[in-house]
Amino acid sequence: SRDGTEQRSAIRNTARVAMTVELLAWGPELHRVKADLLTDPLTKFHYATAWRQTALATDAMAAADSITVAEVPFWLVAGCPLVLRTPTDEQAVKVVGVAGSAITLDAPVAVDMLAGAKVYHAYTAPFEDSVSFKAVTAGIFSGAVTANAVPGSDPQPTPALALDVFEGDVVFPHKPNWRDRPQIKIGQGREVFDPGSGLIDEFSPTGRTHIDARFLFSKIGAAEAEKLIGFWVDRKGKRGQFRVPTFVQDFDVTQVEIAGTSTFRVRGEDFLPAYRFSDTYNVVALRGADNSLELQRIASMSVVGGDTEITFTQPWSQAITPFSRLHWCPLSRFG
């Protein structure tokens, strides 16, 4: 709101999902895409999610209304659309029920499928209103097809998350993998009243500065991607706040402090006036060699010998050195 107070509600229980598939298609494949696009514009297709897959544990014969899978992942729940795929055939079905590794389907299996055939999670969605392809050679075309899943049409299960909690707030568990460095944007909400003549008036409705941080994750495994998606879904709406380390070196520590100490010093006196009364920067995260996080709250700061000494409410379990990976860990929310 304009005065800085907020009520963040998730109106939908399921988040919007958009999928973009990059294609390199030759004649028959491009004809298939054209044929699909020429159907009813609102026809919903099953889009298999390649990173969510399991396999048949036993043969599934034609006309069977159930299958047995080798593994039952978290996303395999009632109502989930599936794509059954062999090297020569594929079929779209929906899960009716799950009993152990036995999966009941809403339609019989169309053709015989041998053990090992792939079982993919899928989203149902129509094509977007336009799709473009560009000729790479006389017979090969490249393009991207984007589809937006209909909100609420499919279940959105998420994996169980084991999250660290500090003072009642969960901690963002993932470290950016540094394809790009973190990006930070600092801004202020301002409004200008211009009557058209005379003086103009500029003011800030909230009186606060906002800081936006952007982290890029790339080339991560399916399990890590699922955790990121699950964390995002879990933190939507009123439960949205969480603590996230800056993942940059925020503290220039001047000397070694043994494990069990509750203080360390950072270089210079300027640190004190910058952060002494901050409501945002008052919790510090220490990242260990295994990327585990230890969080501590600042109790006080003072100038000692030309440097700033920071005292914490609890002692650190690890030694603090000039090489320790120490980050601010402010309360945040997804943009």
Helix and strand topology:
Blueprint: E1 18-26, H1 27-37, E2 45-55, E3 66-68, E4 81-85, E5 90-99, E6 102-105, E7 118-125, E8 133-135, E9 140-148, E10 165-166, E11 169-170, E12 183-188, E13 191-193, E14 201-203, E15 209-214, H2 222-234, E16 242-243, E17 263-266, H3 271-275, E18 283-287, E19 293-304, E20 307-312, E21 325-328, E22 331-332
End-to-end span in angstroms? 15 Å
Counting helices, strands and paired strands, the structural category is: mainly beta
Low-confidence stretches: none
Order of helices and strands: EHEEEEEEEEEEEEEEHEEHEEEEE
Strand order of the largest sheet: 2-7-4-5-6-3
The total strand number stands at: 22
Structural summary, described in words:
By secondary structure, the chain is mainly beta. The strands form 7 sheets. The protein has a 6-stranded antiparallel sheet, with no helix packed on it. Strands 17-20-19-18-21 form a 5-stranded antiparallel sheet, with no helix packed on it. The chain contains 3 helices and 22 strands. Strand 18 and strand 19 form a beta hairpin. The longest helix has 13 residues. The mean pLDDT is 86. It is extended and about 80 Å long.
Task: Provide key terms for this protein.
335 residues, extended, six-stranded antiparallel sheet, five-stranded antiparallel sheet, 9% helix, 36% strand, mainly beta
Summarize, please.
This protein has 335 residues and is mainly β. It has 3 helices and 22 strands. The longest helix is centred in the C-terminal third of the chain and has 13 residues, at 222-234.
